[in-house]
Protein 1
Amino acid sequence: MRDLDSSPLGGGTRTRARTVVHAEHTWVVRARTDKPFKDVKDELLSAFEREYIAAALERNDMNVSATSRQTGLSRKHVRHLMRKHRLQTERRFIEE
């Protein structure tokens, strides 16, 4: 564990970082203690959702149906997360 002078979750307050390793996934968690637990948890969950869905979409060439199948989420929920985190699929046009 190491001290960090700044955190992506807020201003320049010192935070403690922990690297969490679970199976194939690794996360660096910076938990602030100057905010209520629920607020910090919501921020961390939101950051995880955005990274996860963005990576899944990229891995599936921005295809919502393929991302849905690969993640086990419904297409509706994938689209909800895309709107929530302001992610868009690229519109591909066929040039004539």
Protein 2
Amino acid sequence: MLKPRSGEASYVLKLPLLEGTSWRGEHGGQSRILKVDLAFDTGAGHHEGCVQTMEERLGDRPTRYSTIFCPEIGVVQVEVATGANFERATLKSYAPDAHARRRGGEAPPGAPDNPAQ
């Protein structure tokens, strides 16, 4: 949960993770879950069980934010469209969670076998 200057709470992602769930987004618009259990490929590998959201902010500068979240990683892609402008950022690589590795968890594909301690 985020608290913008207005004092109203907003969320990046909100339960239940079901298509159609909606809430006040982090940019002040209306967010909703578009897809669940999405398979998505990035430079960091193939990801399953992902969730895609869309936030639409209206007004004098309407903007759309599409975000894909994947389990154990977080945000893997963000697209922002406003007027004639469009930007996309997609995950290319990531480091494994050192705490999970110490607890016996598996490293993600492409992670070094012996991470620095």
